[in-house]
Design brief:
- There is one protein chain.
- Helices cover 16% and strands 48% of the residues.
- The strands form two sheets. A five-stranded mixed β-sheet has the order 2-3-4-6-5. A three-stranded antiparallel β-sheet has the order 1-8-7.
Amino acid sequence: MKTFKKFLKKKSYIKAKLTFTKTNHFQIQATINGVLGNFILDTGATNTCIGLNTSLDFHDVSLVDGIIGADLLKKSKAIIDYSTSTLYLRQKK
């Protein structure tokens, strides 16, 4: 695992902790296009949506400011480590 982490660091990846929700989604606190908030990570969503400001009260989930979709994940060459609930994103050079 150390070799993998060294490889990602050398390739300019950053890591972010994911939280597993009651809706079986990963949630992440992040800043996207200047919007700081809680986002649902949805690999099945084609596009990222920002500024939803909606609550999933019926699932007892906190306020959601948007959805991170495949477009952003692809652009940042995302890697999801499900065993550690970690998202790795490649930074722009």
